[in-house]
UniProtKB/TrEMBL annotation, chain B:
Keywords: Oxidoreductase, Pyruvate, Thiamine pyrophosphate
GO biological process, one term: pyruvate decarboxylation to acetyl-CoA
Protein name per Swiss-Prot or TrEMBL: Pyruvate dehydrogenase E1 component subunit beta
Domain of life the protein comes from: Bacteria
EC number, UniProt record: 1.2.4.1
Record-linked SUPFAM superfamilies: Thiamin diphosphate-binding fold (THDP-binding), TK C-terminal domain-like
Domain Transketolase-like pyrimidine-binding: 4-179
Catalytic activity: N(6)-[(R)-lipoyl]-L-lysyl-[protein] + pyruvate + H(+) = N(6)-[(R)-S(8)-acetyldihydrolipoyl]-L-lysyl-[protein] + CO2
Cofactor(s) essential for the protein: thiamine diphosphate
EC primary class: oxidoreductase
Origin species: Roseibium aggregatum (strain ATCC 25650 / DSM 13394 / JCM 20685 / NBRC 16684 / NCIMB 2208 / IAM 12614 / B1) (Stappia aggregata)
GO MF term (any one): pyruvate dehydrogenase (acetyl-transferring) activity
Amino acid sequence: MPINITMPALSPTMEEGNLAKWLVKEGDQVSAGDVIAEIETDKATMEVEAVDEGTVGKIVVPAGTAGVKVNELIAVLLEDGEDASAIDTSGGSAPAEKSGGDKVPAVPESSSAIEVGAKAATDPVPAPKNADGDRIFSSPLARRLAKLNGLDLKALSGSGPHGRIVKRDIEEALAAGTGKAAPAAAEAPKAAAAASAPAAGPSADQVLKLFDKDSYELVPHDGMRKTIAKRLTESKQTIPHFYVSVDCELDALLALRTQLNDAAAKDKEGKPAYKLSVNDMTIKALALALRDVPNANVSWTDENMVMHKHADVGVAVSIPGGLITPIIRRAEEKPLSVISNEMKDYGKRAKERKLKPEEYQGGTTAVSNMGMMGVKNFSAVVNPPHATILAVGAGEKRPVVKNGELAVATVMSVTLSTDHRCVDGALGAELLAAFKGYIENPMSMLV
Amino acid sequence: MKSSTVREALRDAMAEEMRRDPDVFVMGEEVAEYQGAYKITQGLLDEFSAKRVIDTPITEHGFAGLGVGAAMAGLKPIVEFMTFNFAMQAIDQIINSAAKTLYMSGGQMGAPIVFRGPNGAAARVGAQHSQDYASWYAHVPGLKVIQPYSAADAKGLLKAAIRDPNPVIFLENEILYGHSFEVPDMDDFVLPIGKAKVERGGTDVTLVSWGIGMTYTMKAAEELAGMGISAEVINLRTIRPLDIDTVLASVRKTGRIVTIEEAFPMCSVSSEIAYQVQEKAFDYLDAPILRVTGKDVPMPYAANLEKLALPNVGEVIDAVKAVTYTA
C-alpha cells in the first residue's frame, strides 16, 4: 500500500500552512527522518521529516502552494516493489482540485448505462476536507438525522465517496455516543471565522478604488501578516484594554550594566560570556515584578482565572515582514546572563524565521521595546493569552525635580497595557510600581 | 391463479373486452388472417369476424388516423402497430389528433382509443427497430402510457386501457410475449391505470423499473439478497400518470433509489423519476439517485455490441452498491 503523506499540524493551533518548498522530487528514495519539505506556518518555516522509508511516488501539492489544510494529502510514498501505478488507487483520496484531476475516477458520461456519480466508492480513506475549506459533504438524509439527534457533522468523518457523511456514519456515531454537538465547540468555529475576518471593514474593492490603478502594487499577505492581523484584531475586539504609564530613572541600572558587562568572563578569543542590554534587564525586572504581584500574572478564560506559577515573558522581535514574540520561560528564575544569551539566539533565529512554535506560543506577559528607535512613549496591544504587555520607550536625559531642585536624570517611560477583565487598574499600577522598584534599584535583581 | 404467457394474456384481455362491448374492434397489419405478426390476435378473427378484426394496408399514418376518427365517432378501436417503431409514421395522428382532441374540443369530443404493440429492443433488428418510446409519449398531456411487465399487468391493464375514455399508449415487449406469469383466474380482472406495484419488499434500496427493465431488476434483487442487501422493487406499470407516491413511500423508507430501463438516458422516464424524488423526498436521500439505462447510442446491429448497449444485471448491482456505499 502506498503511504499517504499529509500536511502535518506543526502546532496545536495550526489549521493550514503554506507548502514552501519540496526538498525531494518524484522518484527520490527517502528514509525515515529525512527532511522532505519545508512548511511555512503562521510565523515560522518548519521542516517536515519522512516517517517511513520508500520512494516518492507523487507530489500532490506543489511547492509554493498556500493555505494547505492540515491533514490534506501532499504526497504519496511508495514502498519497496511498488510502482507509480499503485498510486491510482490511493491517489483517489486526494481532492481532485489539488491533484490536478488526473487519476481521479471520472464520472461516466451519459453514454454509460450507470451514471454512478460515486464510482470512487471503493475509496476506503476518508478524503480530506475539500479545498474550499469548511464544506462538509453529507447526504440530505445524514444531515436530517444529525439535526434530529443533535450531532455535529464537523465531529464526524464520512465513509462515503469524497468523505461524504452518510446515514451509516450517523448510525455508528449514535451507537458509539460520539459526535454530540458541544455548544462551545459549535461556537468556536464561528468565533474563529469572525476573528479571521477583520475585513468587516471596507472590502478590497472599496479600498482599491480610492487610489489610481497604477499608483500602487499589491503584495499578497504571507502567513505571518495574516496571523498578526487576525490575532490583534481579535485582541482589540475582545480584550478591554487599560493603560498605565510610569517614568523610571535608569542611571543606577546603566551603571550596574556597565559594571556587570565589564566583569564578564572572556573566552580565548576575548569574547565575553555575556553582554547585557537594557532590554534584558527590563525582561528580568518585569518577571520579578510579576513574581511579587502574582495576581497580575494571569490569563483570562470565560470560566476561570488562570494563575500562572512562573513569569514567561514574550519579547516582541521586529523582523522583516512583521514581528514575532519568542518567550523567555521562567524569566524570574533565570540569571541576567542566561536571559541575555537566550534573547540573542531567539533574535537571530527569528530573523531567519526558524523559531519553533513552542518557542513563540504561550507566555504570560510581553515586553515591546522601541527605545532603540528613539520612541519616547507608546502603548502596545495585549497579545492573548497574556493579560499584560509592557511598552518600553527610550532612556533619555530629562530634567527632573529632586528634593525641590532641578536635576538631570536618564529617564525611561513605560506603559503597561492590561486586559481589564483580569488585571484591574490598581493591580496594574501595583505591578508597574514593583517594576519601577527593580529598575531603579537594580541590585535587587541580582539577589 | 393460472399460468399464462403475456401473449395469451393480451389476447384474452382483448377478447374479453370485445365480448363485453360491441364497440371495441381491432385493426392493424396482419391482425386478422395471419392471426397477428406476433400471434397476439390469435383466434380473434374466428370469434369476432372480419367486421371487428380488420387487416390494414401497410400504412401506419392512414390506419392510425382511421382509428382516431372511429374513436371520435364513438367506437373503441384497438390499433395494433406491428412495432412501435413503425408508429413514428403515425405519431402526428397519435399526438395531434388523438391526444389533444378532448382539450381542443372543450370536452365535447374525445378519442377512446388504444394504440398497442411491441416497443423497445427485440434482438438483432438494428437501430431503427429497437427503440423504446415510453418517454416520447409520456411527454404529452392527453395521453396515458402503460408499459406492462407481467402477464397479469398485461391483461388487467389492457382491459383498463380499452375501457378508458382517453387515448392510451400500450407499450408491449416482443421478448416478454413468451414469458409466463401467474394471472388471477377470475371473470373480470381489471387493474387500475396509474398504480405501481411493489413486486418485492426491501429496506436498503428502492429499485424502480417497468416493462422489460423488470427482468434485470428482479434478478438483481435476488442476487443482492444473497449479498445481504435488501432491495425493494417497484414495478411502475403505468408511466403516465406516474405513481410517484408509491416510489416516494419506498424511498422514504430506504433512502436510496436506482431506476432501471432499456431506453436512452437523456430525458428518460428515469430522469423524471429522479427529478420528482429529489423534489419531494430530498431530506430522505442518503445517496445520489442513479439510473441504469440503455447506452446513449443508436442500437448496434452486431450481437456483441447490442448486448453491451442494453442494461444488464451486473450494472444494476453496481449501481446499488454505489448508492448503499458497499462497493
